[in-house]
Amino acid sequence: MWALSTSGGDTAYHHGDLRRSLIAAARDLLRAGGVEAVTLREAARLAGVSHNAPYRHFASREALLAALATEGFRALRKALEEAGRRAEPPERLTALGRAYLRFADADRATFRLMFGGVVEDADHPDLAEASSATFGALRSVVTERESPAGAERDALRAWALVHGLAHLVADRQIDAARAEACLK
Amino acid sequence: MWALSTSGGDTAYHHGDLRRSLIAAARDLLRAGGVEAVTLREAARLAGVSHNAPYRHFASREALLAALATEGFRALRKALEEAGRRAEPPERLTALGRAYLRFADADRATFRLMFGGVVEDADHPDLAEASSATFGALRSVVTERESPAGAERDALRAWALVHGLAHLVADRQIDAARAEACLK
DNA sequence: ACCTGAACACCGTTCAAGT
DNA sequence: ACCTGAACACCGTTCAAGT
């Protein structure tokens, strides 16, 4: 009866897309109401399945949150890499900073989930990998022009400045334009 | 029968200390398990009252969280002011930065609650006031030595740097000593 | 004033069962 | 494999009632 539904719309999750549907639903909940609004039962409801079906794809609510954070780190990494490709060394660092700030501004809730401490990296290997790959992309650009003494400290300072600005933007304490003006 | 208990220990909350007991209990829960571990029912249990008694002092769970964040901002402000009093202008800014980082390191969970976006400043007047008073204390020191063009941007940069370092410390991505080394 | 117990609509998670 | 319904122990919040 629904053997044909693979190709058609509403019931696609019956054939392997439930994971994706749940992540999409959870992302909507996150953006609308923050971490505390993300519940397995509501995500299941939005995906049109029973409250129990999510456990076929996520071991726990935290695993679903970890998947959202993982996707966030991948998207941020992609944005950083694209910004890096579009600029040459003197301005490259600024371009990455701008991409970082735009990410935080465009998806505040995901940014907060990524850095809010609700999901522990250590408990979710995919998340740990995505997060360190993102920092690797950032670090390689931040250190590319320096090697003398103090380089490591300068790199950390640059990272902290951008990260702090991003948090202030995500918290709506300053706006994105003022933050970008600080990138020099 | 318990008319005398005002002066004595366990049942003091029956006479006006319940609010304080609940905050203390909530603080323990926050430090032990993060925001999501703070529940009204568990705080009530720790304080030795029925699950319903907290509503005499807090309109909602969020109001209890707001009280914790408010106390956090007051403690941070006090730490910043003391640091400022103990140092003179050239080093004063660094001293404040150090105090900020030590606060984030010593009470990561509270720092995250204060800046994690779970409680909205706008919904809690006391919190809004405590938070802006804290930023005022910071801002006055950050701008005291400069007035020429670019001063506002430099002040924001200094704030963002310290704030970013503090988040990285709270997230355990760098340790407090490395962060302090970045304050110059 | 401050506290209690029962009640309601939610959660996350587990289990036995259906296709 | 993937999904369902019932069940359990939790929540936040409200209400009627006790002292």
From TrEMBL, chains A, B:
PROSITE patterns: HTH_TETR_2. Residues 39-58 bind DNA. SUPFAM superfamilies: Homeodomain-like (SSF46689), Tetracyclin repressor-like, C-terminal domain (SSF48498). Keywords: DNA-binding, Transcription, Transcription regulation. Pfam families: TetR_C_33, TetR_N. Residues 16-76 form the HTH tetR-type domain. GO terms for molecular function: DNA-binding transcription factor activity; transcription cis-regulatory region binding. InterPro entries: Homeodomain-like_sf, HTH-type_TetR-like_transc_reg, HTH_TetR, MT1864/Rv1816-like_C, Tet_transcr_reg_TetR-rel_C_sf. PANTHER family: HTH-TYPE TRANSCRIPTIONAL REGULATOR RUTR, TETR-FAMILY REGULATORY PROTEIN. This is HTH tetR-type domain-containing protein. It comes from Methylobacterium frigidaeris.
